[in-house]
Design brief:
2 copies of one chain form a homodimer.
Chain A (H helix, E strand, L loop, with lengths): L7 E9 L11 E9 L5 E6 L1 H19 L6 E5 L5 H12 L3 E5 L3 H10 L6 E4 L3 H4 L5 E4 L6 E5 L9 E4 L8 E3 L1 H6 E5 L2 H7 L12 E2 H5 L12 E5 L4 H18 L17 H10 L4
Parallel strand pairs in A: 4-5, 4-7, 5-6, 7-9, 8-10, 9-13, 11-12, 11-13
Antiparallel strand pairs in A: 1-2, 2-3
Helix pairs in contact in A: 1-2, 1-8
Chain lengths: 287, 287
């Protein structure tokens, strides 16, 4: 990596292709770049499918710390695909969840999730319906992949006092919750202008009251107020989460050595002599 | 590379940092990506500093084919940095230019350019002023890097019948020509909404008449009409040029073998088992 004065900017390339799964490919295809503000040189190129799963789960669990009922132990996870285990582990670390009720329309996905979480301190139940999964839980996480306005949770499935962590609805035309649930919930979001387009609240009026998570974290707004309240974190994924994840990765590189140098940029001895560099390269035998 | 159905999309990451040169770095830092429309998987990651120089020069020479005076042989190149040789060679290939008059505020840049073009069929003169460089030429190429509204060409330097290839002015606040030259010229551009922001014509009224290059190429508009006319190609660089360059590179990969496979994406055996892939990777000794 070239040296930097430390001021970085970045971007994320990300695609959601639910159909990829049938062809043995990742639904979320992502990579990211950090670049140096001073020179414009890219500093880091990283995969972001795993990073997206990690930082989505971290943000969800962070939100739950402020919004879930005190002493929450049991969580339903509806949708047991690529992101489910990350969610479970993040919630265990930040909120103390140790009982999981798993449901997926494909039971083998739930079995895969349970197998992967074996020995990690969870009491796990595989459920046969979504209704069964939400029975008695404190937190409901929905993290399904289908790109449509689905109804993973119907209104009758959500009792008072629950915290809903709605992860899967994250682009226009892709939602998971019945609108009536939203109307009964106090809704918390990352960044309203984005969430109103991409999140569950695309189903609501554009001026429906929502609270920004950062306001809760800084004490400027209240999180959970009563035990009966239904709280909803309408997760869509916000740029600063990805930016933080990339910077975290970069900070780990030196100690872990888990990186390789890429020969991505033309690097002539004299910057104005780009053409001369090519002339000289043409004279050398191929490496 | 993964297989693709052939439908590709792409993006270019590009920065212009004129100050980089003083630190021995490239002014234009760029790379590009081609990705598969069907799956969202990235297919190609390529440097684009060299590609930008190549396709900028190719587009300039293409424009000159339609706009420069018939039988043009002599070209002034003002600004003899990283892109200058590419411009010269493209013009030789497409318009038959074989006499170059070089000028740069740093004479060593002109000497570098002349040295790199030695033996490539040019009669080259290094000039001591811009005024000297434009003496008797058919085409004036300005390709300087400074990020400011400069006046590389003043009005008195441009005689009738000349074609101006204005390459360096390519972002807001970065121009090379005196406004009066623009007012005397017939102006041709890649894409008006972009060029009005980035090009020389940012100095003109928003409704100033310009002609799109593609219209000339398809016969829907006329290029050069008279020998006396001053034509100006206000080059800023348009996305389809970069997209074409990336596809060209991709088409050359198989035959040349000049690529390496990048392990950029998480690739679990079962796409929903991203976490399981990490578990299994953790059990294996580091490669």
């Amino acid at each position: 990596m070239p040296t930097s004065d430390g001021r970085l900017y970045g971007f994320k390339y990300v695609n959601g292709h639910p159909k990829n799964m049938r062809e043995g490919r990742q639904t979320v295809t992502a990579f990211g770049v950090l670049a140096d503000v001073g020179s414009g040189y890219p500093m880091l190129l990283s995969e972001m499918t795993i990073l997206t799963a990690l930082c989505t789960a971290a943000t969800s669990a962070l939100a739950a710390k402020y919004l879930a009922p005190k002493g929450s132990r049991a969580m339903a996870i509806i949708g047991n695909g690529a992101q489910s285990e990350f969610q479970a582990i993040a919630f265990k670390a930040l909120t103390g969840i140790d009982r999981l009720r798993l449901y997926d329309i494909d039971r083998s996905a739930s079995e895969k999730c349970a197998r992967n979480l074996f020995g990690k301190g969870f009491d796990i139940t595989i459920c046969t319906t979504g209704q069964d999964a939400v029975e008695g839980v404190d937190i409901i996480t929905t993290v399904t992949a289908d790109k449509q306005c689905a109804t993973i949770l119907t209104d009758n499935m959500v009792g008072s006092g629950v915290h809903i962590n709605a992860v899967g609805g994250d682009c226009p035309g892709k939602t998971e919750l019945h609108r009536d649930i939203l109307l009964r919930s106090d809704i918390f979001v990352e960044f309203p202008p984005q969430t109103r387009i991409e999140g569950e609240i695309q189903q609501l009026d554009a001026d429906h009251t929502v609270t920004e998570l950062w306001q809760v974290m800084t004490g400027q707004a209240q999180g959970r107020k009563t035990p009966e309240q239904i709280t909803l974190f309408d997760s869509v994924g916000f740029a600063t989460e990805d930016f933080s994840a990339l910077r975290y990765v970069r900070d780990q590189l030196k100690a872990t050595g888990l990186y390789e140098e890429l020969d991505l940029l033309a690097d002539p001895d004299e910057p104005r002599d780009l053409f001369g560099m090519l002339l000289r390269a043409a004279l050398q035998p191929a490496a």
